[in-house]
Amino acid sequence: MALMITSFIQKDSFIQELNPISKIFLILLVITSIIILDNLYITYFFLINVFFLAYLAKIEKEFVKGITIVMLPIAVWFLIIHGIVNPAGKTILFKIWFIPFRKEGLLFALNFGSKLVTIISYFYFFIITTYPGDIVGSFSKIGLPYKAGFLINSSLQMLPLMQRRAEKILEAQEARGLKVKGKLKDRFKAYTPLIIPLILGALMEAYERVLAIEIRGFSAKVKKTHYREVNFEKKDLIFCFTYLFLTLILIIGGGNF
Amino acid sequence: MNQTIIEFNNFKWHYSNNRKFRLDIQELKIRKGSFVGIIGPTGAGKTTFCYSIMGVVPHLQNGKMEGSVRIEEIETKNSSLNVLSQKVGLVVQNPLSQMSGAGLNVEEEIAFGLENHGYSRQEMIKKVKKIIELIGLKEYARRSPFELSGGQQQKVAIASILVLEPEILVLDEPTGYLDPLSTDMIFTLVKELKKQGKTIIFVSHKFEYLNELCDEIILINKGKIIKKGAPTEIFSDISLLSKNNLGAMDVTNLFARLKKAGKWKKRFAVSVEESEKELRSEFPWMR
Question: Containing domain of residue A105, as a range?
Fold first, then answer.
């Protein structure tokens, strides 16, 4: 496997080989049906489906780990905040110390939180199963702006680079005697000096990136071509139609669940 | 070969966020196919000089420009970077700054410029393969440029510019991050490019190499051209180099010491070969 600075996980499966547009089409279907139907069962259907797709893509472990790290704190936070302070909350379900948690607030958090987790899971699935270099090509093929594809592609690569930069700054600060371990307060203190060099570094890098792309003709007014071949194949068609069909069934039968 | 390819006329540039610095070049003509070395201390204006040729100044920098820089018939001020990028290629000191981020591996990174200029996929594959072999990047072709060492990254940066086949190649301290072996490889490569008729502007502190390869040396300090001349003329002038915060080569310093000791009256040699020849002729016992 080629070494890459990106969130993309290279595995030998048809999911990784799908055209990025097929996966974006699925995300749009999921968002639309979750919002239109406002049905918790349908939301959970799609949530289970994304885990199934991650299994098919042979990335289930990485997917579960990533989703847990990102979504668990948000989900817990959602439940606590809405359970306590949601104005719709009336029925006290239980108390922790003297703080009451109300049923209506918790149900709202469960409903809204599940939708949020599902939608974000699909985006995360897209990021780790899509080769960023294919995004620009697939966008251009369906007439979407080249710059939009480039923006998504470079952003996907920038995130791991930012993470790496943060690690380097932290190591440098640590080498100069900064305590980065210990109590939560100490750790919070340790991360504060990281912010300014990280942001300034990122801004400078953005300027350098502009220079790097412009001196290689980024703004040239010609039809852009692509080194990587990205086609919309039969498997993409089957994938899109399967999910379109499933979504239509869910929408038609939505009220009966 | 006497045709002028780069021409500065009453050129003045100052950055809006740095009032103290100003690049001021009254007149400068660089011949097509020549190899010009640019030397000067830190902050002298070497990078701004390179940016002026590429058109980064004034197109990507904030500041005020007077006069003109012409690349053959194109006036940089009235042109655009994408037009200039077909004539001029710029390689900067930090190879990481040169990565577009568009390509996930070396091949794709090199192909980025070709994609921008609309080359067909077949042409791209051919050109990328050729340049990868020329630069010696074959074993890294499928790896991410961000995972490579500084030297390898610099090779990728040079390859990504060379693949566009610009007539003028501007290299701003490209060997700054490289080990001696990779430095040697870069200079051998540009030597080859010179033979192909490319015009090369090379900023470097590696005087030994510049002395060997350059047709002309331009010494820049405080935003002005202090002196322009043949490599031997510039590098043998220890007082000129010292006045401009530059150190002479070891071999030249040796002759300065001999002069101080009253044992040398001739011009200072600037290369090992020349020194050997001069010393053997001056001191018969060395033969």
Answer: 14-130+232-256
Question: Region A169-173: what's the mean pLDDT?
Answer: 84
B270 in any annotated domain:
no
B121 touches chain A (CB under 8 A): yes
Domains held by chain A: number: 2
What is the interface size between A and B, counted as CB pairs within 8 Å? 124
Q: In angstroms, rounded to a whole number, what is the distance separating the alpha carbons of residues B202 and B281?
A: 33
Are B249 and B273 in contact by the 8 Å Cβ rule? The answer is no
pLDDT of A181-224, one tens digit each? 777 777 777 777 778 888 888 888 888 888 889 999 998 888 88
HSE of A222, CA atoms in CB hemisphere, 13 A: 17
Alpha-helical segments (H) within B140-179: 150-162
Q: Nearest Cα to A6, choosing from B97, B108, B22? A: B108
Write the DSSP symbol of residue A143. Answer: T
**Residue at token pair 């072999």:** B133
Name the strand (E) or helix (H) holding A44: helix A40-56
B57 near A CB under 8 A = no
Q: Mark yes or no for CB contact B117/A132 under 8 Å.
A: no
Peptide bond into B58 cis (omega under 30): yes
User: Helix, strand or coil for residue B180?
Assistant: helix
CB A252 within 8 A of CB A37: no
Separation between Cα atoms, residue B279 and residue A253, nearest integer Å: 98
Q: Do B104 and A131 touch (CB under 8 A)?
A: yes
pTM: 0.81
> Which of A122-131, A244-253, B148-157 is modeled with the greatest confidence?
A122-131
Q: What is the CATH number of the domain that holds B59?
A: 3.40.50.300
Q: Kindly state whether residue A66 falls inside one of the protein's structural domains.
A: yes
Instruction: State residue A159's pLDDT score.
Output: 75
- DSSP designation for B196: T
Residue B143 DSSP symbol: S
Is the residue at A46 inside a domain? yes
Token duo for residue B181: 């072996």
Which residues on chain B are in Cβ contact (under 8 Å) with A7?
Answer: none
d(CA A21, CA A141): 10
Inter-chain touch A220–B160, beta carbons under 8 Å: no
**Same domain as A46, residue A70:** yes
Q: Are residues A190 and A236 in the same domain?
A: no
Q: Which residue has the tokens 């390509």?
A: B103
Neighbours of B209 (CB within 10 A): 20
Report the pLDDT averaged over residues A43-51: 93
Over the Cα atoms of chain B, what is R_g? 20
| Structural domain includes residue A138 | no
Specify which residues B63 forms β-bridges with.
Answer: B15
